[in-house]
Design goal:
Layout lengths: L2 H18 L16 E12 L6 E9 L2 E6 L4 E7 L4 E4 L1 E3 L7 H9 L2 E11 L2 H8 L6 E7 H8 L11 H4 L4 H16 L5 E3 L9 H13 L4 E3 L13 H13 L3 E3 L2 H4 L4 H13 L4 E5 L4 E5 L13 H5 L2 E2 L4 E2 L2 H10 L2 E5 L3 H9 L3 E3 L5 E2 L2 E2 L2 H16 L5 H8 L1 H8 L19 E4 L20 E6 L2 E5 L2 E2 L16
Parallel strand pairs: 1-4, 1-5, 6-7, 7-8, 8-9, 9-10, 10-11, 11-12, 12-17
Antiparallel strand pairs: 1-2, 2-3, 5-20, 13-16, 14-15, 18-19, 20-21, 21-22, 22-23
The structure holds zinc ion (ZN).
Length: 491
């Protein structure tokens, strides 16, 4: 109930109230007359809202999938979740989640994620992608119009998630570039949340082609989520892939979001964060994200592995094949490169990863992708790892700051393009009831490189649009409260 409606109610009910005497009213935020019944009440939890700074024990009443009241007085609910000793935080918004099926949504929910978005690779058929998930998703889902995906469609690339043929290796013709631009524009008109790019994966795309994609994004106020150009380990002091997209953003005005800066930044992470801070101080809309792991994961058929046939054996041994757990040799590298699949690769030093995760500039995003229980542990463990290790064990981040990186900042990244995000990433009256409840003393990741699908621990309840999807630390079966996270459809 809004404050305005509360006031009207009070006017109309004033006489009645005088007759029946005092009715409990806790108008701190929203209101309750003590007899209202909410669909769900979260009782006695420590509510933490990074936007308002609220950090106090409160009761939260939910009605019709929205937060209806936040009160220090008791509330009546059809269903009550006893949250004493638990943190009540906005559900986590993952801007970088490739796996978008039931298996992936389950591990995300168990890690406190209520909205998982495929914004880096993105999709070519925005309408079809959203249609496939309608009414079938555990958590909220959304996607960008993806330059990688669209280029693969236009150039008939045989790859899977990432290109392995012409979309990686061939300069587009003028006609193809026009078709790529038109398809991206169509995706944006159909409500794509952003534009995804990965010049590292589409290495034959020229600077001109990338700039033109930014021009399309700017027209729709869409942020560009970019895996910056560069194959092989980044060289200290060289960051032309980074500068390519900073320039494109400055020239076109399209907001820029650099994905997983802790991996693509390599030895330049601190320097690149500094450059982002400087660009922001000059009014540029540039943001970034990181995941808290030193290893990365990508497709073995990606262009990153072109010209890797004659490396020392230590190079191949540094690659891990998650499907079997084996470290590669030259022979198995070449065999798997023909076969295709995901490979775990050395990413960055622990010091650089740490610097990226704790920077006030970075959001937390997982880059997750799990298939049949195989993949990178970041898919299932990213958020609990930050809360358990960075916040509790190392005290490298305070809890509110960590939550802000997981909730408010990602919501704010998207809300100019998709106003529905003004109602996510916050615990306030009127916000969507996407909520994560966890035990700050116990929360921890359990996913490992060997067992990447293991659910995080200590995340006790998760609500998506007011519907519990995790209860008492266990996933709830047979509920599909996830909704499309989408920008307004303009045509
Ligand atoms: Zn990437």
């Amino acid at each position: 109930m809004s404050r305005y409606r509360v006031r009207k109610w009070w006017k109309r009910a004033a006489v009645l109230v005088l007759i029946v005497g005092a009715v409990g009213m806790s108008a701190e935020s929203g209101a309750s007359n003590g007899t209202e019944t909410y669909d769900v009440v979260i009782a006695n939890g420590r509510v933490m809202d990074p936007e308002s700074g609220l950090d106090a024990v409160r009761n939260v009443g939910i009605r019709s999938g929205k937060i209806a009241v936040i009160s220090s007085g008791p509330l009546e609910g059809k269903q009550t979740i006893e949250a004493r000793g638990l943190i009540v935080a906005p559900g986590f918004i993952d801007l970088h989640q490739h796996g978008q099926d039931a298996e992936n949504y389950a591990v995300k929910a168990a890690d406190g994620v209520t909205t998982a978005l495929e914004l880096e690779v993105g999709v070519a058929d925005v309408d079809g992608w959203y249609r496939e998930r309608e009414g079938k998703a555990l958590i909220n889902y959304g996607a960008s119009a993806g330059h990688i995906s669209v280029r693969m469609a236009v150039m008939h690339d045989p790859g899977g998630l990432l290109p392995s043929g012409d979309a990686a290796h061939r300069v587009a013709t003028t006609a193809e570039r026009e078709e790529i631009g038109a398809l991206l524009e169509k995706g944006l008109q159909r409500g794509a949340l952003a534009v995804g790019l990965g010049p590292a994966y589409t290495e034959a795309a020229t600077n001109q082609e990338i700039l033109d994609v930014f021009r399309v994004a700017a027209k729709y106020r869409a942020s560009c989520h970019v895996h910056i150009r560069g194959s092989g380990p980044p060289i200290e002091g060289n960051f032309s892939g980074f500068e390519e997209v900073m320039a494109a953003s400055a020239i076109t005005g399209a907001p820029l979001h650099i994905v997983h800066i802790q991996s693509t930044g390599g030895p330049n992470v601190t320097q690149e964060l500094q450059m982002i801070a400087e660009a922001r101080s000059r009014g540029m809309d540039v943001t970034t994200e990181s995941y808290p792991y030193t290893m990365g994961m990508t497709s073995i058929q990606a262009a990153l592995f072109d010209h890797k046939e004659e490396e020392p054996s230590t190079y191949y041994a540094s690659l891990l094949w998650p499907a079997t757990g084996e470290h590669l040799t030259k022979e198995s590298f070449l065999r798997y490169r023909t076969q295709g699949g995901m490979v775990i690769v050395p990413g960055n030093t622990p010091e650089n990863v740490h610097a990226a995760v704790v920077s006030p500039l970075t959001m937390i995003a997982s880059d997750g992708h799990l298939a049949n229980g195989k993949g990178h542990p970041r898919t299932a463990g990213t958020y609990a790892l930050v809360l358990g290790r960075y916040v509790r064990e190392e005290k490298a981040l305070d809890l509110m700051t960590a939550l802000k990186k997981m909730t408010l900042m990602p919501a704010q990244r998207l809300e100019m393009r998709a106003p529905m995000f003004k109602y996510k990433g916050r615990i306030r009256v009127g916000a969507d009831a996407d909520i994560a409840l966890f035990d700050a003393n116990r929360v921890i990741d359990k996913a490992t490189y060997e067992k990447p699908g293991q659910y995080s621990e200590g995340i006790q309840f998760v609500l998506v649009n007011g519907v519990p999807v995790v209860k008492d630390g266990r996933l709830v079966d047979g509920v599909f409260p996830g909704r499309a996270a989408r920008a307004p459809v303009s045509q």
